[in-house]
Structure formats: C-alpha cells, structure tokens
Amino acid sequence: MNSSPDISTKLLDWYDVHARELPWRVSPKDLALGILPDPYRVWMSEIMLQQTTVATVKDYFSKFTAKWPNIAALSSASEDEVLRAWAGLGYYSRARNLKKCADMVVTSHDGHFPADVQALKALPGIGDYTAAAIASIAFDIPAAVMDGNVERVFSRLFTIETPLPAAKPIIKAKVAETLSQTRPGDFAQATMDLGATICTPKKPACMHCPVRENCKALEKSDPELFPYKLAKKEKPKRVGAAFVATSPSGDILLEQRPSSGLLASMTQVPTTGWNSRQDGDTNVHAAPFNAKWKNCGTIRHVFTHFELELTVWHAENVRSDGQNYWWATRENISEEALPTVMKKVISCAIPELFQKQ
C-alpha cells in the first residue's frame, strides 16, 4: 500500500514519539499544550541550516538568539556585528540577507513575519524552500517543504527515477499530495527527521522506518540508489598566497575584503588576487610589504564553485601603519569576522592560536 493519507498518518505517529529535540523547535507535546512556534526562531534556524549541518548550527543559533532575542534586536545591530557573529558559518551572503530581512520585517511588516508564502518570498534571503518551511512550521500553512532529506525520502517512497535536480518538481508534487492538511508543520519536520535519522543516504535503517511498508524502493529495488543524481562536474582549482604578519607583541595584521564579491566585507590577512575565476600569485614577491617572510606550507579550502590552495607566508616582528590594515590581539582574534579559510591560514602560521579558544 502506498496511499498518501497512510504515509502521512504513519509519519506523524512516528514523529510524536521520536521527534528530535532542537533549540528552535516546538515539540508535538508542547504544540498540543498550545505553545506555538516563534516565527523569528524558525526563520533564523532555516537560514542557518541552508548548506550547514544541524550540529554546527546549534551553537550559532544559541549565540545569535541570546545576543538578539527578537527581530527588533537583530534589526538594531549593524551588518558588521552580524558578520562577526556569523564568522565560521560560511556562505556569508546569508548573514547580509539576515540583516536586510530583519530590517524589512521591522519597517514593512511592523516587526512580524507575514503568514503568507508569497509575502515571505519577497523578503531578502528567502526563497521557495525557506518560505515554505516558515509558512508550514511557524504558521501551519500547508506548503510542500523541500530539502535534501525530503527529496531522499520521497524519491525512495515513490521510486522517482528522474535525476535531481530535474526531479524536484515531481518530488514536490508528491509531497504536496501527501502532506497533512491539519499538521503541515509537524509533517514537514517529521519527513526531515526521518531523512536525517533513518532514511539516510548510506545504510538506511529500513527496519525501523515507519513507512517501510509504503516504500517502493525497499520493495522493488535498493533504497540507496535513490535519489538519482547526475554526475557532478569537477570543481576548478585555484591557487594564491596569504601573508600572516605578527607584531613584536604577537598581534596579527588584518584587513577587510572588498564590499562585493566572494566573502564580501569579511576580515582576512593580506592575500593575492585569487577568486573563483583566476589564480593569484603564490610567490613571496607578491607580499604587500617587505619583511622576513617564512614559508609555512599550504592550506586547502573548498568553496561552492571552486577549490582553493593558498601558500601561507609568515613574518614576525612586523611594524606597519598602513591605512587599510589593523592589528588584532591574540586574545581578541575570535571577535573578528574571519571566515573559515582565514582561520585555516592563520592556524597554519600560528598553530596554537585557535586551539586555545
């Protein structure tokens, strides 16, 4: 049997018992007591969870909501403050859009997220998936929520052989057909939890799955074959150099990246002009100023569209008063808006620095 109501009922019954405890989530038991989800916390979690694991997001979510407990507080923060708090979470356009969205909700919606999918999509940083997730989870509006977990669960349930991403509209139609009209938020979270804990990419725990009797992939094929995906293109590889300069007292020389492009407005040590389309110089002669530079080796970092290898140079006892630079103490370096790639660079030159924090 593969009927949609049957799948929905089984998923919700399973979720009522096995729902994950997450800091932004209202449990089924609390919902039954009349405790409603906070749209601000739902939105914050969904933005952070884009391209980022639940385990990583938990600490950042707690830090953000402690510092800015509501949309008005976040709107009052500067973009630089938000970027510094976001440092290390990656995909920094999310942080800039977080601030823009907070401002728009405060100025255009009287500080309240709109309970409408189309109105949500008009806000900065909110696309189809995030709008559906907020509408469904925060406002119990029946909307087909699609993430990697949902795609995997439904491609297996219905043996959808069209490869992703072409399969997305087919899967979305199946989700819309199956979702609970009375508990759409719980249904979305139940499906995501199932994909995260049981219907996993490798070695799914099919014997513990509440909808195993409905799963066509388990009946006719190998669930691990789904979803079908086109072969990924190999990412281009870029190279460059980064220069870690320390003062006589051990402070680290930093600068701000340009206000547009990759890692816009984030903090870095001086580097050569690499980006996703071109290499930068790796030679010590490309250093921003003369010093006794020592080669510390290389670091590698993977961005969405390319891989980067940076040769790291380190110079000690540097004195520089350049207008575009500033010095950060070792004690306060964690407060800077350093992306992960720059933490790797600095750690290559000063291995013990971030280990102490």
UniProtKB/TrEMBL annotation:
Protein name: Adenine DNA glycosylase
Cofactor(s) essential for the protein: [4Fe-4S] cluster
Organism: Ahrensia marina
Superkingdom assignment: Bacteria
Domain HhH-GPD: start-end pairs: 48-197
Disulfide bond as UniProt keyword: no
GO BP of this protein: base-excision repair; mismatch repair
Keywords: 4Fe-4S, DNA damage, DNA repair, Glycosidase, Hydrolase, Iron, Iron-sulfur, Metal-binding
PROSITE patterns (alphabetical): ENDONUCLEASE_III_1 (PS00764), ENDONUCLEASE_III_2 (PS01155)
GO molecular function, one term: 8-oxo-7,8-dihydroguanine DNA N-glycosylase activity
Function: Adenine glycosylase active on G-A mispairs. MutY also corrects error-prone DNA synthesis past GO lesions which are due to the oxidatively damaged form of guanine: 7,8-dihydro-8-oxoguanine (8-oxo-dGTP).
Co-factor binding comment: Binds 1 [4Fe-4S] cluster.
Pfam annotation, one family: NUDIX_4
Family statement: Belongs to the Nth/MutY family.
NCBIfam families assigned: mutY
EC primary class: hydrolase
